[in-house]
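Entry:
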Amino acid sequence: FVEIVKKIARFNLKFTLDSVELTEGSWVRFDGYTITAFAVSHGLPALGYVLEEDPRPGRFDREHAIDLGIPPGPLFGRLQRGETIRVKKDGQDVEVQPTDVMGAPRPGRKIVYTGDTRPVIPALLSYAKDADLLIHDATYDESEKKRATEFYHATALQAGQAAEAAHARTLALTHISSRYTDTASHLQDAKTAFSGTIVIPDDLFMLEITYRE
């Protein structure tokens, strides 16, 4: 498809463009985060995506560092960057490793986007558990469950069930059919299955995703 577009489009690319086809389990590495693809169910080959930040360093134990003989200052920063240092304590050379003064690594943020799909809870449990934000197809409310199945979409209730199963913090219901004049039924359906935060975003909606502590 990309090659055909390059041939028929009325412009000349000024840079190299290579297409890489992703499949179930494919991942692409970026600076500070990774995007992983997982298979969804939409009646044809289709993928959802997990954007996951790298783990963050653990908390620095300042008081314990001082007890080990490390003076406040640049040595604190070296330890936090993962370096092993040597200091003198009581006249003795002492080696201090980052693990001596740093807590366990803390998870980065995770965003999951299903795209158009029927419910795919097993895939979410494999790739997207503990998502900070799950953006899930919710084309229909529960009164149109049969239609949702027929057209390879999900209901808001099914989206809520998926979010609950995956232990998501926030659920965003998307791709809602234009047949609905409001989304009250979608919100109510999702709430019956999911105890976390639920949003139904309009275009250009912005959401700040905080770190889990």
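The chain has eight helices and nine strands.
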